[in-house]
Amino acid sequence: MGRAAAALLAGFWLIGAAASVSAQSAEALRSPVLIIDQDRLFAESQLGAAALRRIEDDARRLAAENRRIEAELLEEERALTERRASLTPEAFTAEANVFDEKVQRLRSEQDTKARALAQAREEARADFLGEIGGVLSEIALERGAVVMLDRRQVFLSVDAIDVTDEAIDRINVALGTAGPAQ
Questions:
Q1: CB 163 within 8 A of CB 135
Q2: Mean pLDDT on 91-109
């Protein structure tokens, strides 16, 4: 079957599914497959948004620290360049080598901090998903689902099986922080 034929069949399927879904609009669609947008879930639920704010605060602090270090190193390099004329070639080379070692050490330290920040983000996301598993399981059970897929893994679906908004609302309620995430 060619791509065009497959796309046409998928389109007809979606039209039929959409008509069926609109007939069930008064009640949540029961489906063995549900879709969730994990990125939105993490960013828009209050629990996930709070974790992201903490990580973003840490990232801003690290960026400010990097700018401060860069400014200090530029000043130190400028001062070394100005003193070059008054130093012997050996003394200048020795000071330049010490400066280069300092730059390499600081770069390594800042890279380590950036990797730790990325790891903290992944750990926060994993902790978040662990904490909300019960809510997602309840939604799946209520909707008759046997599987919940991340939206990024789905080629084609009807919107009625996307439970992201419902999950965000229920996570906020379950954690005692109802209302929109800020």
A1: no
A2: 97
